[in-house]
């Protein structure tokens, strides 16, 4: 599924205490007007210590508004180093003095995380960051005028709205993306952040930007994230773990276990320990997707353009697979009876079927032509793989407008249901973790090159009736040759599980799966979900909750588990293994891939934990364990009753929140 990014603008602001509003050089920005963009309801959030993540977006948009307004008045696109530093300090001081944010939000890993390096913002410090607006405009002579007309609409009496839901939003967004890509080509760079920032400043530099229209524009750019179930802001670029709390660092008090899930907001990621992010414009990844698709010169089963005809796609493997006919699948599902529907998602629907032999299967019927490439990719990958912890592809049906994948049916539901809608014992959680790690270690050590799953999450972990866990859904997987990397043409994965470094660089590697698996381990240990929407419109991130807990525990990940452990494990939860799993998870979700363990190492540690737990008499073994699922099998007399599972239906990827 498509994942879109936002461009980020680095902003230098002091961490614990802001720089003085005026230094040797005064800030030329009209910050008083810019901060009016931040709605009054954000004030109480800041002083209450539970600032909504959405309020940070307004803070960031206010700063870029000030930059665009200055460009309109003076023709200066980017400031020299000293004025840039003065503005970042003045902006922080204004935010604090007006009550818009609390000091803890400006601290490293605070919700707004505005720590940064002034040099990143100065003219000439990076590609596209030119001193004059004329020089910036000259980088995109074809696309910029259209983007200015559609977004800023200077001089137009009644321009179409550009806010979320307005007809002008999509056109404006697309035009800004085109402008950014033209600037990238002109500068001969791949640095989307500074060029995206330059594009936004240029778009709004023809006339004084109306405050309300610019606010609508910013929300339009952010709306794309929600429309495609994209990443939280903290998942866009890597940011280092926070340092241990100290008396000189502003920090939040440790919340109680009953309230911690409601107080953890996603911190905005930064490109380095000293770079802070401010929203400039959305969808760099969309530009990559759009342009790279047009430029593809080769076609493989794993990289098939969505708009290519079936005739142009490579032949599918047949060895070891049964090639079903339409009539066979229709008969197996009683004519695709809706009573047999297991789930539905962006690619199609999944039905429970029964073959003439009596074998029950899960049949994924592809009804969207744009998902045919994933169909081909999954067949190509699964045809080569055989492992007890990977779902087995029985066969497929290909022809005309009807494509289908036929998998083995697993009657134990999926991990998401078992964990969040059932009562999953700790031993079962350990066993599932070992099983998934076994599958991933096999994939990463595949003889033809590492197979990177790219979408590891609880809904893609299916459970058999005997208790075994198996990875499913290989539609976005890639085989990476030994010693190489795959450059992704599309951002793949699910919000909250995507490796931020691989996401920002566009490189597919095993480390991305390690990160995703680390998020799953955090879910197993804490009972929290990867990302949970908040009533205020923001989101909560389990990764940042873990980093924050570790900081509060003086850098001891094992000790941090005490504050986040799933209370459903009871008062006598097994401290040695829960703490060890939590610490291992924190290593897996480190911001940079070279800091993470390999999957083989993760597997070895998990096996040791399970062996230790077993030796101390912990829990029932796999054969005695059971997982509960609240969803029943489709009611049909000809099919035995069992709990249902589905290979990654997108409808299950964003479940309702479990009350704690």
TrEMBL record:
PROSITE patterns named among the record's database cross-references: PROTEIN_KINASE_DOM (PS50011), PROTEIN_KINASE_ST (PS00108)
InterPro entries referenced in this protein's UniProt entry, alphabetically: Kinase-like_dom_sf, Prot_kinase_dom, Ser/Thr_kinase_AS, SPARK
Domain Protein kinase: 336-610
Pfam families the record matches: Pkinase, SPARK
Biased composition (Low complexity): 247-258, 625-638
Domain of life per record: Eukaryota
Biased composition (Polar residues): 639-648
Signal peptide: 1-16
Gene3D superfamilies named in the record: Phosphorylase Kinase, domain 1, Transferase(Phosphotransferase) domain 1
Region of interest (Disordered), residue spans: 233-258, 617-660
TM segment ranges: 264-289
Name of this chain's protein: Receptor protein kinase CRINKLY4-like protein
GO molecular function terms listed in the Swiss-Prot or TrEMBL record: ATP binding; protein kinase activity
Keywords annotated in UniProt: ATP-binding, Kinase, Membrane, Nucleotide-binding, Receptor, Signal, Transferase, Transmembrane, Transmembrane helix
């Amino acid at each position: 599924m498509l994942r879109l990014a936002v461009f980020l603008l680095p902003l230098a602001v002091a961490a614990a205490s802001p720089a003085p509003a005026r230094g040797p050089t005064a800030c030329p920005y009209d910050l008083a007007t810019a901060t009016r963009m931040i709605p009054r309801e954000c004030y109480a959030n800041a002083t209450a210590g539970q600032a909504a993540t959405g309020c940070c977006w307004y803070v960031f948009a206010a700063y870029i508004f000030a930059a665009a307004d200055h460009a309109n008045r003076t023709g200066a696109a980017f400031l020299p180093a000293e004025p840039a530093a003065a503005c970042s300090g003045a902006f922080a001081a204004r935010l604090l003095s007006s009550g818009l944010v609390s000091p803890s939000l400006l601290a490293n890993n605070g919700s707004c995380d505005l720590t940064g390096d002034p040099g990143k913002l100065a003219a000439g410090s990076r590609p596209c960051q030119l001193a004059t607006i004329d020089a910036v405009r000259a980088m995109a002579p074809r696309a910029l005028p259209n983007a200015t007309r559609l977004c800023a609409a200077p001089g137009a009496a009644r321009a179409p709205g550009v806010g979320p839901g307005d007809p002008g939003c999509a056109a404006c967004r697309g035009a800004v993306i085109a402008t950014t890509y033209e600037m990238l080509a002109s500068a001969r760079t791949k640095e989307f952040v500074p060029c995206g920032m330059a594009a936004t400043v240029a778009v709004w530099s023809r006339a004084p930007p109306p405050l309300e229209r610019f606010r609508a524009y910013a929300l339009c750019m952010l709306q794309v994230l929600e429309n495609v179930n994209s990443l939280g802001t903290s998942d866009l670029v890597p940011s280092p773990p926070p340092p241990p709390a100290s008396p000189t660092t502003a920090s939040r008090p440790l919340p109680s276990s009953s309230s911690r899930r409601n107080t953890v907001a996603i911190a905005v990621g930064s490109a380095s320990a000293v770079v802070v992010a401010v929203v400039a414009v959305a969808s760099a990844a969309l530009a990559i997707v759009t342009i790279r698709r047009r430029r593809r010169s080769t076609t493989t089963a794993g990289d098939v353009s969505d708009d290519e005809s079936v005739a142009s796609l490579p032949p599918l493997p047949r060895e070891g697979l049964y090639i079903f006919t339409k009539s066979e699948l229709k008969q197996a599902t009683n004519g695709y009876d809706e009573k047999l529907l297991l789930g539905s998602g962006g690619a199609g629907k999944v039905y429970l079927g029964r073959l003439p032999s009596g074998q029950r299967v899960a049949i994924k019927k592809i009804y969207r032509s744009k998902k045919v490439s994933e169909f081909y990719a999954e067949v190509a990958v699964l045809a080569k793989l055989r492992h007890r912890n990977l779902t087995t592809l029985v066969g497929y049906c290909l022809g005309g407008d009807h494509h289908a994948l036929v998998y083995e049916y697993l009657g134990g539901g999926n991990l998401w249901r078992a964990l969040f809608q059932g009562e999953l014992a700790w031993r079962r959680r350990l066993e599932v973790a070992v099983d998934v790690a076994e599958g991933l270690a096999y994939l990463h050590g595949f003889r033809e090159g590492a197979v990177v799953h790219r979408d590891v999450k609880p809904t893609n972990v299916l459970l058999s009736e005997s208790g075994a866990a198996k990875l499913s859904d290989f539609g976005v997987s890639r085989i990476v040759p030994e010693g190489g990397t795959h450059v992704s043409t599309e951002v793949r994965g699910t919000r909250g599980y995507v490796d931020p470094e691989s996401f920002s660089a566009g490189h597919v590697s095993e480390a991305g799966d390690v990160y995703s698996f680390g998020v799953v381990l955090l879910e197993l240990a804490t009972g929290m979900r990867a990302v949970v929407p908040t009533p205020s419109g923001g989101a909560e991130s389990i990764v940042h909750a873990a980093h924050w807990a570790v900081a509060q525990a003086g850098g001891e990940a094992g000790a941090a588990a005490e504050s986040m452990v799933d209370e459903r494990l009871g008062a006598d939860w097994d401290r040695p293994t829960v703490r060890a799993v939590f610490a291992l998870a924190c290593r897996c979700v480190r911001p940079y891939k070279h800091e993470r363990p390999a999957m083989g190492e993760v597997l070895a540690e998990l096996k040791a934990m399970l062996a230790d737990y077993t030796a101390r008499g912990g829990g029932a073994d796999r054969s005695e364990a059971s997982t509960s699922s609240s969803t029943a099998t489709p009611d049909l007399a000809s099919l035995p009753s069992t709990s249902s599972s589905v290979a990654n239906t997108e409808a299950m990827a964003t479940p309702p929140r479990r009350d704690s």
